[in-house]
Design goal:
- It is a single chain.
- The chain has about 160 residues and is mainly alpha-helical.
- It contains 4 helices and 2 strands, in the order ββαααα.
- The protein has one domain.
- It is elongated, with a radius of gyration of 22 Å.
Length: about 160
């Protein structure tokens, strides 16, 4: 560290530019917690992106009730993912992680209901590539965000 003398009588210590000061990880963010949180947020965003793509490309926009739910899925996924990634919302990360897991599980459950019966008058069939991507992203979101919450709980 170097000492800088300013015109006043105060003396302050500032790091030399070559001496980077790395902040300690926050509590709950150690041992891969940040990686799990970021990857979980990206998985949640992928869930929403698939629903938005299906909304426009497969014309789910014209399907009553289901179409707006696809659009809301994307909006919710984007909000949750941004909340998990942005530092100002760090205090809400536990709730956002739970919300991301809930969104992923609900999406998968609604798909399976629509595949084996009707959901709001809609029946789906088959496993097209978009469905497989969505199911993989939903599973990844649950596992990654569950791991993140587990690490946070363990560090306390």
């Amino acid at each position: 560290m170097s000492t800088v003398h300013e015109p006043t009588t105060r003396t302050s210590v500032r790091p030399i530019p070559d001496e980077a000061v790395i902040a300690e990880p926050r509590e709950g963010e150690r041992a891969g917690g940040t990686t799990l949180r970021v990857l979980g947020a990206l998985a949640v965003l992928a869930v929403g992106a698939v629903h938005l793509e299906q909304y426009f490309a497969v014309h789910f926009a014209v399907v009553p009730v289901i179409g707006p739910l696809f659009a809301l899925n994307f909006a919710g996924a984007a909000a949750i993912a941004l909340g998990l990634l942005l530092p100002p919302l760090a205090r809400l990360r536990v709730l956002l992680a739970l919300g991301g897991m809930g969104l992923a599980v609900t999406s998968a459950v609604f798909f399976f209901i629509s595949e084996h019966g009707t959901l709001f008058g809609f029946e789906d069939y088959g496993y097209r590539p978009a469905i497989l991507v969505a199911l993989a992203a939903e599973a990844a979101a649950v596992v990654l965000l569950g791991g993140y919450l587990g690490l946070r709980a363990r560090s306390r």
